[in-house]
Sequence to fold (244 residues):
Amino acid sequence: MFSLPVTEIFSSIQGEGPYVGVRQIFLRLPNCNLTCPYCDTETNIPLQFRMETVPGSRHFNKLNNPVSLEKLLELLLQTYDFSLHHSLSVTGGEPLLWANELQVLLPLLREKRLKIYLETNGTLPDQLLQVLPWVDVISMDIKLPFGGQAFWDVHEPFLRYGLQKEVFVKIVVNTETTPQDLKDARDLIARVDSSIVTILQPVTKTHDIITPKPYQLLEWQNLFLEKLINVRVIPQTHVFMGQL
Ligand code: SF4
Fold:
């Protein structure tokens, strides 16, 4: 059976997007194909992953990487009551880098009546197709261009494939976001389906990152509402709740 390296596993509250507030089991996987300037996630493969056995306790068991899918399934079943959770959030890093392994794991979890919520940077459309039959909700980032790279060519087919399931789009915005990049993102979504729920997520303030001004967020929401039906501004809420 396959094995998989894991970063961490915990049960907590979804802090982003339209599902904010629901209870989820989080399975964070390492590695990423992007290097976003505002990234706050450790993406290297750790020798051991951590698993919070009592939610909110901040007591973690350390387990060796990689873990067999059989063992991972057993750990999840033994530790968490699936019926109390909305879904399993498969997050990263970029979880679709592990599409071969997820193709095996996700059907086993769905057999146990756990829905699958995929958090992805939306740049790997072929890998999305590999796991799509077992995904219930797709939280897709649209990454605005950075470092001379743009991702429109892969975002558009990704979003079209995502329409086969429930999909929403999240765009992180900061003080340096340009109206042209936002228009390009808006037009891409409108070409696919103007009713797709679109979240503008102001970047979370840290010591060296400044969050957008109130007037900027309102102007940018207006810009999206010119072509899209359902546009919401939602910050990362788990941060100010002290949740993982
Ligand atoms: S896609 Fe996500 S995990 Fe990857 S670099 Fe960007 S913010 Fe970090």
Residues 3-174 form a domain with the TIM Barrel fold (CATH 3.20.20.70). The chain has a mean pLDDT of 95. Residues 32, 34-36, 39, 41, 43, 92-94, 121 surround iron/sulfur cluster (CB under 6 Å).
